[in-house]
Structures are given as C-alpha cells and as structure tokens.
Fold each of these.
Amino acid sequence: MSAPFSDPIWQRPHAAIALQPHVPAGKHIDVVVVGAGIMGLSTALHAARLGLAVRVLDAGDIGQGASGLNGGQVIPGLKYDPEWLLEHFGPERGEALVNFAASTADCVFDLIRDEQLAVPFVRNGWIQAAHTEVALKAAANRDRQWRARGADAKLLSKAEIAAVTGAHGYLGGWLDRRAGVIDPLAYTSELARVALASGVEIAARQKVVRLSRNAGNWRVEMEGGAEVQAKFVVVATNAYSDGLIPGLAETIVPLHSFQIATAPLSSNLAGAILPEGQAVSDSRRILVYYRKSADGRLVLGGRGRMALPTTPADWAHLERALLRLYPALSGVAIEKRWFGRVAMTPDHLPHIHEPEPGLLAAVGCQGRGVGLMTALGKRMAGYLSSGDVRQLPFPVSPIRPIPFHAFRQIGVATTIAWYRMLDALER
C-alpha cells in the first residue's frame, strides 16, 4: 500500500519508548500477551501492577493496528441499553454489565489523568445524531434509560443539534457527556510507555506462530524459532486474529473502517463546526462518525471496501458524506486518508473465550474499542491475578465459528451496498 494511505493524522508523543530488540529466553513469565494494542497493553499494565511478570509480543509496531488508527472516540456503554442487558443476562449479571459499560470512558480519562499521559483529549461528550423519526425515538429511549441511572446525558432538539454540530440533516439526537475524544496513536503509545515503566517487557515485530501446553505452562513460539513459556497467555489480536487459536478468527467479521481528515479549518469554519468539540456518530445503517482533531481538522470515518485501497477514489463515499453534512467544506482540501480493521460479532457483543485453562482471548469491540478494551484489560488482569471469574464483565463463552464464514465477506459487501442505497433514499 502506498504511503498516502498509511499515514494517519494521529501523532506519537515526542518521548520515544525503548522496546526489547529481541526476546530473552529462560526467564520466568507469568503472562504472555499477544498483541500490543489497547486491550493487550491495558491487560499487561494492570497485570504487572498486580505483581505478575508480563511480556507483550506484537507482530508489528505499537499502534500499527486499529488501536492507533481508529477515530479516537471514547464512548461508554455498549450497542445495547440497560433494559436489554438486564433482560438478556439476568438481574445480577445484567446489573454488573450495565455498571461496567457505564464506566468504560472513565477508565480512559482517569488513566490519562492519573498517569499524566501525553495524550491530546477533549471530554465534552458524544452525540448520537438522529436523521429519522424512528432514530429519534430510539434516542429518547436510550436517554430515558441512562438518565434514570444518573448518566450526564441530554436529548437534543433539532435546533440544539444544529447548534452543537453545525451539520445539516438531523432531526435531533442524544448527547452523552461522559464521552470524549483522544488521539488514539498517542494513547496506545503512552500505554506502552507506562507499561514498560511498570516492568512489562514489550517486543515488537515478534509474530507468535504457535501455542502449546507444556507441563502446565504455555509454550509460545515465534517466527525465527524463539520461544518463551508462561502460566497464562492472553490473545489480544481482535480483528487481526489468525489461526493461532483454532476457530477464533472465524467467530468475527473483520471490517475496514476508512477515515479522512481535512486541512485545518479556518477560524470561521472551526467556530461553526463542532464548536464545543464533541464526537458524533449518526443513525444511518452505514453510519459515519466524525470529530475535530487537536490541530483543528475535521476527521470523518465510516465503512470502506474490504479490498486494500489503491487510489483516493476508495474514500470518495466519505467525501460525499462530508459535503452532505457540511456543504461549506466544498473548497477545503482532504489532506489525509487512512484505514484500519475492526471486528464485529454476530450478536454485537464482545466475546471472552478460554478454550483451554490459562489461554484467554477477547474479540469484538463493535466500534467502542478505546473505552471498552481499556476497561476490559483491567478486568482481565484481575482475573489472571485472582482466578475469580467474577472479575470478567462478560460470561466466558465457547468459540463458535460463524457458519460459512468463508462466504461472510460476500454477504457483508452485499449488505453494505443495500444499506447505502436505503440510507441514500432517507436523505
């Protein structure tokens, strides 16, 4: 892939972190984490602070995957609201899950504050923008449920959402003030820095190719023949999962999330577009999400083709969405284009698996990975340290590959095309 399509707007902090150039053998390790994204680094950081010896191995570099390439929206909650969670998980598990979901954004912003992370952020909320009456009713229902639980949230009228977004075409929406935006590459890099400072060993460009049990421990083998042994292995590869755990990759549908960034906005445009710095996701079937960056650009993302992009035309659907929302941006250049891979599960919930004792995996962020995986990593560390399954917010479930998974992408592409047409008819 050519450079213009692999260069996101996000920035690493100036302070460089020193990663292990190799994997030393023979040292006792309690936990090996496969994947140095938000989930893996959060797990490693909190496990180390609970007294465990931890090593993180990643096939690439820090922030090279979706953790460093996402839109940087920090949104609490799940795709489902409290009443649905209580109905489907029961009063005890459901209540614990609701409380966990409510806390995920706090986990991120508390970590930035407490660890003094060099991460640009704004915490003025997230708006779910409604473009139809049906979507507006759903927003009102969500508002009722979360405000009954004390959430700092508000239902927005047509005039109010026009004022806070500056965008065209919305009938109203829902503002959740618990949310915010960050620079995701800076955040992932800083998680690595504080994990290293807490005693975690991190080795980049070390692809794990085989896991096997050996006398009660896990043998972790890498390309090139290096290996380590550990009591626990946490596979935190999410949308980049391969055959390391049999069947895991077939439990998710990987999707490409494309993003564009404008040139820095003029003072007039900046004052009219998202003047308070909220993040926005709309209610369309193929939604778009957007926010302003720390240097004053408008960043907009949405689903893209599954083939690797080859020309700027692969982002044309996002440029059309941008001008539909903000016609005044017609003369503003698009300076950055990039994409990452995200994982969806058929039931739109995160899944935790433990196919064998001491081997754990978590997949399925559903577009809320920054807060969700930060919080889940802390809970995963608690489980590794204590063995208490109640530390885990979601039930541990068997690995169940999606039937006809090999044909799933064809179905997804067809569905996306159909939904785009329906969305266009609802303008």
Amino acid sequence: MAVTHRTALRFIPVVAAVALLVTACATPAGGTATPAPAESTASPSLDPTPSATPSPIESQATDDEISLPSSCDELFAGDLRATLDAEIAPLNDPGVTMYSTENAEALTVLESGVPSLRCTWGTPSDRGIATTVSIVSPAQSELIVDALTSSGFGSEEASGGMYFRTSQRMLSMDEEVVDLGETHFLRGNVWVATRWVNYGPDAYTPGIVAQLWP
C-alpha cells in the first residue's frame, strides 16, 4: 500500500542509525570525558566594595551549574544500574558508535568540542543506547532548545530543568518493527542527550539527572 511505501522510505535514515550500532566509524567510543579548555587566571579585582548579594535567580543558576563527571559509572546507580546491567549490558562496548542525537543543529553543538562524557549501553546490534553529557554555554543551550522545539520534540519542565522527547515506531525495509527515539535534558550548564533504538526505559534519563544533581 502507499502508506507502507512511505513508511519504508522514512525508515531509510533509521537504517543508517541502526547501522551505526553494528559497524564502527570515526565516532569515539564511550566512557571518556573530554576536558574543558584551560581557563586563564583573571586579575584580582581592585574594587574594595563588597559584591552585592546575588538574586534568587542568580543563586539558582549557580547551584544548577556543575562539573562534568569523570566517568560513566558516576551516572548510573541503584535500581537503574541494576536494570541496565541485567537487560542491556555492557556499558561502553567500543563497537557501539551510534550518535546521541540525529538533530542536525544539536549534533553541530555536540561535535563542536564542548566538554563531554559519552556513555553507551548494549552491544553492536539493532538495540542500544547512546548518551552524551556536555557542558554548554547559555547561547548553546538556547540553540539546542530552539532546534529541538522546531523539530517537533515534546517538552516538559521537571527536575529543575527542561525535558525534550521524541519517539517513533517504524517498519524497516525488511518489514521489522523498530522503536527509536531521543530524550534531552537541559539544566544550568548541562545538556544530557540520549538516543535509543529498541530499548528506552522511562527511568533512564531521570536516573542520570538524579545522579548529576543529588
């Protein structure tokens, strides 16, 4: 039928995404944090006047800003870690090379050299998860929000930040049903980007958020 034909055509990019799980490419394997560039030391202020007390908004922004975790083990704990180990181990198989997003504008930020920690779950197959936690500037965060919103992602305020989600169920050219999607979370100076194929538990990103802001 015509509808089936259109679905098959729409799945062509998805086949490429699944293939990234199966075959290696230039994308780095997970588990290594990319450090932030060294910061220059600022000259001490000569103004003897004490600084003003920060506003509640400024205080919250400071509280929301965190450092990049040093390893993927810091992101997964408790019941979530036990579930992932049981259902889609291992963590950081070097053969899993799927990107954490396929949104072109968001991917540009992800590949721009921002400090990042990449983590994956699963083996090279048609089932897996890729997550990247990145430190972003306010301008980059705004660009990501605009890109995801204009791409039709659903949004929700929760856990002190903003979630963006999208998911699809499609037929491959082999008539196999494939579920896939993305979940993004932005808060303070952090962007958590996750793409999943045939495995995307609801507790996954909230579990990471709970570890980043305990």
